[in-house]
Structure formats: C-alpha cells, structure tokens
UniProtKB/TrEMBL annotation:
The chain crosses the membrane at residues 21-41, 47-69, 90-119, 139-164, 218-235, 247-272, 293-315, 321-339. Belongs to the UPF0718 family. Pfam families: ArsP_1. This is Permease. InterPro entries: DUF318 (IPR005524), UPF0718 (IPR052923). It is a multi-pass membrane protein. It comes from the Bacteria. It is found in: Cell membrane. Keywords: Cell membrane, Membrane, Transmembrane, Transmembrane helix.
C-alpha cells in the first residue's frame, strides 16, 4: 500500500516526459486524420513531407551556422555592444540582438550581469526586444517558408523594434521613470553551458573541446529544428485542408490597420516559437491573411513567447515588464503597417 502513495519513480517520470514531445503530437494528429478522414491522410502526409524537404537545405545551413557560432564562442562579441555612449549602446544592442546565438536561459544571466554593472535600461530593452525576433537559424527558416522578402523584412523589423524600444525607454528614464528596474535576482541553473573565452576562436577545429561542442550543438539543434518544423508543417497541412479560407480572410485579411492590429493582439497570447510560426503563417497567407497582418502576428508572438517573457519577468520589476509588452505589441502593429505599405 505504501507504494501507492509514493510519487512516480524517476524512470517512469522520464518515460512520461519523452511522451510529451512534438513527435508524439505529430503521431496523434496523423492517427486522428487517418481515423476521421482517411481520404485526406495521404494529402496531409504529402503536403507536410514536401514542405519539410523543401526547407531541408535551410535547416542544414542554419544548424551548421549555429553550431559554428557556439563552438567559436562568438556570443562574447555581443557584450561589446554595451560599452560606450548610451546612443551607441542602443544602436549596437538592437543590431546584435538579432544576431546573438543565445538560448533563452543564457539571456537571463547575461542581461542580469549587464544591469547589475550599470548598463542603461534603454540598451538592455533594445536587446530584449530584438533578440526574440530573429537569429541566423530563424532567418533561414523564415526565408524557406515565406520567402526572402518576408525574412529580410522581419530582420529589419527586429532591429527597428529594438531601436524604437531603446530610445523610448531612454526618453522615459529622463522623466524619472523606471528607477531601479532590477528586482532581486538569483541565477537559475542552465543546461546550455557557456563559453567563457574572452575572444572568439574562429578555427574551433584546432581544439578538441570546441570540436566536441560543435558536434553537440549540431546534433541538439538539428533534432530541435527537425521535430518542431515537422510539427509545424503537419499543422500547416491541417490548416490548409480544414480551415475555410473565407474565415481567415474575414478576420485578418484585407487592407487597413484593423486586421493588422487584430493579428498582433491574437499573436500576443499565441505561443508559437520562431521555428513553428513561419510555416503556419504560410498556410494562413494562402488562406487570405494579409502580409502586414502576418508580420504583426509573427513579431507580437515572438516578443510575448514564454521564454522571452520569462527572461524579462525574472529580472525586472512589473512596470518594466509592462513596458516591454506594450512596446512589443505597438512595434508589431507599426511593423505590420509599414511592411504592408512597402
């Protein structure tokens, strides 16, 4: 009887965790289609498989690039953006935010250290707003799903949003707002590891430790992208097959600010990471979603994703967190309007 009241054994918990993966969801979705609509099963498989095959070169290049950046320790270049005059810091933080190969748990200690050392909140906000939107793998995945014009537009929007947020915070700080933004912070454990080299080592293959990290990052990120993109393309196939095009067009189609604002507000609570969102947006655009609404949805969703919000919430006081979300959704709407005009 005592065993009935005990928590599940570690081995059982590990097995349950393995079941809670995108692979499991993919299998369940496909089994549901096979059971409920067997005539459409082959169409869904062909659509998802073809889309994944078309994106495969982008995935491979993205994984190689990210593994290279990690193995060389290129992240340390980002810290140099937070040196010098405040205006220069904002400009470089917005730019490097879209290039930094940080995972969400690495951003937290990095930003905490900068704030503790006195880095201005304006530059930190610029980095925070641009960082979730784009990085080298996301750029390539977006280009593969939505085309290079959209991917480049998103990259430009990421830097512009960082600049917008950074200079807005700079102006507000001058009025006395956001004094002492940092809350009490205890660094959490992080399984990502960190490269503590002072300068990048571009010829990483000359060091056994760096070669090992390259292999580890390649395998880890490759599997990560493969599972999430597989799920994304299966969901896109369902979207195209079962969601009426006129419904999408009615909600987020057409011209004007209202569909774009609606897409941004819908995108805020919708947790779609940057690898899942592009294929789904491709399906929505095929169904009638405007390009401006798609851009607003993607930007708002990235800014409000769980890892991005957790990184901000864990470090700063609620009023700074509210400013982060407000600037994010406003920037998403502006980016959508401008992208649709262009």
């Amino acid at each position: 009887m005592a065993e009935l009241t005990q928590s599940p054994r570690p081995g059982r918990r590990i097995r349950l965790q393995h079941l809670k993966t995108p692979w499991t969801l993919i299998v369940l979705i496909l089994l549901a289609v096979l059971a409920l609509d067997p005539g459409n099963f082959e169409t869904v498989i062909r659509f998802a498989g073809g889309a994944l095959a078309n994106t495969a070169p982008y995935i491979l290049f993205a994984v190689l690039l990210l593994a290279y950046l990690k193995a060389t320790g290129a992240e340390v270049l980002v810290a140099r953006a937070f040196e010098g005059r405040e205006t220069r810091m904002i400009l470089l933080a917005a730019l490097f935010g879209g290039l930094a190969p940080f995972c969400s748990c690495e951003v937290i200690p990095f930003i905490a250290g900068l704030l503790a050392l006195g880095a201005p909140l304006s530059a930190v906000m610029a980095f925070w707003l641009s960082s979730p939107l784009i990085d080298p793998p996301t750029l390539l995945i977006t280009a593969g799903a939505l085309g290079w014009p959209f991917a480049i537009g998103k990259a430009v929007a990421a830097v512009a949003l960082g600049l917008f947020g950074g200079f807005a915070i700079k102006a507000l700080v001058r009025t006395g707002a956001f004094a002492q933004p940092l809350r009490n912070y205890t660094p959490p454990g992080c399984g990502c590891g960190s490269n503590k080299a002072e300068t990048p080592v571009w010829k990483f293959w000359q060091t056994a430790e760096r070669r090992a990290r390259f292999r580890s990052e390649f395998a880890t990120n490759g599997l990560f992208l493969l599972k999430w993109l597989s799920l994304a393309y299966v969901l896109e196939a369902l979207l195209v097959s079962y969601v009426p095009a006129d419904l999408i067009a009615q909600v987020v189609g057409g011209e004007g600010v209202i569909p774009i604002a609606t897409a941004a507000l819908v995108g805020m609570p919708a947790y779609l990471n940057s690898y899942v969102a592009p294929p789904l947006l491709a399906g929505l655009m095929e169904q009638g979603m405007s390009t401006g609404a798609a851009m607003a949805f993607m930007i708002a969703g990235a800014v409000s994703s769980i890892p991005a919000m957790a990184a901000v919430w864990s470090l700063v006081k609620p009023r700074v967190f509210a400013a982060y979300l407000g600037l994010g959704v406003l920037g998403a709407i502006l980016a959508g309007v401008l992208f649709q005009m262009v």
